[in-house]
Amino acid sequence: MLNYTTTGCTEKPVVCFLHGFMGDSSDWDEITDALSDDAHCIRVDLPGHGQSTGLPSYVYSMEGATQSLADVLDDAGIQDCHLVGYSMGGRVALYFAMNHPERVRSLVLESASPGLTSSADRDARLAVDKERSARIQNDLSGFLKEWYRMPLFKSLARYDLVESMITKRAKNDPDDLARALIGMSVGGQPSLWERLKEMDIPTLACTGALDDKYVKTTRYMAVGSRRMETVIVPDAGHNVHAERPQAFLSHLVYFLSRN
After folding, report:
1. C-alpha to C-alpha distance for 226 and 20, rounded to whole angstroms
2. Among 42, 77, 120, 181, which residue's CB has the most CB atoms within a 10 Å radius?
3. What is the phi-psi region of residue 146: left when phi exceeds 0, alpha when psi lies from -120 to 50, beta otherwise?
4. Where would I find the AB hydrolase-1 domain in this sequence (predicted)?
5. DSSP 8-state assignment for residue 198
6. Is the confidence at residue 195, as pLDDT, over 90?
7. Whole-angstrom Cα distance, residue 7 to residue 9?
8. Higher confidence at residue 83 or residue 150?
9. Check: CATH 3.40.50.1820 for 4-116+191-257?
10. How far apart are the first and last CA of the chain?
11. Burial code of 176-206, b = ≥16 C-beta within 10 A, e = fewer?
12. Whole-angstrom Cα distance, residue 149 to residue 156?
């Protein structure tokens, strides 16, 4: 079973949060603390992250992660929820919503993608992630420094978040992270782009204006969707809820209030 924690008011609507790669459920603390009077929050450690380690091999996949999320909701006595996912957690959230739509009241995707459309791109990305997994196992500290130098995370430095991120991520188990990276790689999952038009769930897709790649992805997703709205947050990059938590919270609360 995936590790999870709950906070807030049990009489209020359930909001479930999924973190990104190398994160853990505590990444959402500031957001869930702010929602404590208005929501029943459940925060989940994804496979290979936080305290969700040493799990059966099948769990380290998109199919396994989504089934494990369903098991968490069952264990917590939750029939359905508002589901929020960031980056890798957003991909899991989208996969879950498409395969368990009856359990998702609304969906919030932060800097998340439906996958890669071509098999060549998927193969190339999976090869990259296999190389990354080897580096994680051999030198997690060195990998983290390289990872947060990527342009995708450049904006974290504007908010003095890089060092604290590296320190926190270094507490993960390298072998489990490597398993999660390969098993849940965007290169190993089917593209969900064509299925977006089938999804009849209120959805908010958001990212930061400084993340050019995901600004484009977010807008393309909305074009192909029936019930998706978008928010591009100024002065933020890939990790909006860490860089501009109050702005993220404002958009989240407004969206939830309408769904």
Report:
1. 26
2. 42
3. alpha
4. 13-245
5. G
6. yes
7. 7
8. 83
9. yes
10. 29
11. bbbbbbbbbbbbbbebbbebbeebebbbbbb
12. 10
The three-point CA angle 43-44-50 to 5° equals 115
CB-based contacts of 29, cutoff 8 Å, min separation 6: none
Write out 54-84 in H/E/C secondary structure. CCCHHHCCHHHHHHHHHHHHHHCCCCCEEEE
DSSP secondary structure of 203-255: EEEEEETT-HHHHHHHHHHHHT-SSEEEEEETT--S-HHHHSHHHHHHHHHHH
**How far from chain centre, in Å, is Cα 7?**
19
Side chain identity, residue 33: D
- DSSP secondary structure letter of residue 49: B
The reported pTM is 0.98
How far is residue 215's CA from residue 219's CA, in Å, rounded to a whole number? 6
Positive or negative, the Cα torsion across 119, 121, 123, 129? negative
Are the C-beta atoms of 35 and 81 separated by less than 8 Å? no
Give the pLDDT score at 208.
98
Question: In 106-211, which ranges are continuous DSSP H helix?
Answer: 119-138, 140-147, 162-169, 174-183
Q: Is 104 exposed, middle or buried (0-12, 13-18, 19+ CB in 10 A)?
A: buried
